[in-house]
Write a structure and sequence with these properties.
Length: about 220
């Protein structure tokens, strides 16, 4: 076979392994004297792109190492931009990476230095006492006020009325029970006494038992 000046110029990009190398050939102009050829030589490295007809080179004609070179993936050539979001699963990661992602926490570090002592807190409630004197109340409305000892504050109070002399539960109506003699200290209200308001509906006076709980608040 001979290729003459009448041959049509071939435009081809050929990847071929010739003698273990890579030959990249571009189009050859038939008008170019250097493109005029005699018989196709059959020696290693002597075939160029213009000797080949378009579409006549197949994958099987190319050295496997050359195919791998053009189509393979090599170390440090894939970046995050090349990976589609959500395409990687845990099975795609090596054991070292999976271990770091699934780690609960690192080893416990050494203890830090002891911090400074905090300010002294309040002493809280101390010296709790309950006072419950017996009181005689007449028929009708009455108020009973019980006071705490000096330095103590009232915490709670109440009334028991069914254990006194001539006293029955049906005769007594408790109108109110509340802290009294209030005082403000540092934005907090405290009470020095407790008041019980009641109505005796019996035709006679009765004996009731009010009580008050007091304590020292530090």
């Amino acid at each position: 076979m001979r290729i003459t000046k009448k041959a049509i110029a071939l435009s081809v990009a050929v990847v071929a392994a010739v003698g273990g190398g890579i030959v990249l050939a571009t189009s050859a102009n038939a008008a170019d004297p250097a493109a005029v050829a005699g018989p196709i030589p059959n020696t290693e490295g002597s075939v160029s792109g213009w000797n080949l007809k378009n579409g006549t080179i197949y994958g099987a004609d190319i050295d496997p190492n050359v195919v791998k070179w053009f189509t393979g993936t090599y170390n440090n050539t894939v970046t995050s931009d090349s990976v589609k979001d959500g395409a990687l699963a845990e099975t795609d990661l090596n054991d070292a990476v999976k271990g770091k992602l699934n780690a609960v926490g690192g080893p416990v570090g050494p203890a830090g230095p002891e911090g400074p002592a905090g300010p002294k807190g309040d002493t809280g409630v101390v010296g709790l006492t309950v006072s419950s004197p017996m009181k005689v109340v007449p028929t009708g409305f009455s108020e009973i006020k019980l006071d705490c000892a000096d330095g103590k504050k009232a915490l709670s109070g109440g009334l028991k009325w069914d254990s006194g002399v001539k006293s029955e539960a049906k005769h007594v109506v408790v109108n109110g029970t509340y802290p009294s003699d209030l005082a403000d200290a540092e934005g907090l209200s405290t009470a020095n006494s407790w008041t019980i308001a009641l109505t005796n509906n019996a035709p006679n006076e009765i004996t009731v038992q009010p009580f008050i709980t007091c304590a020292t608040i530090g």
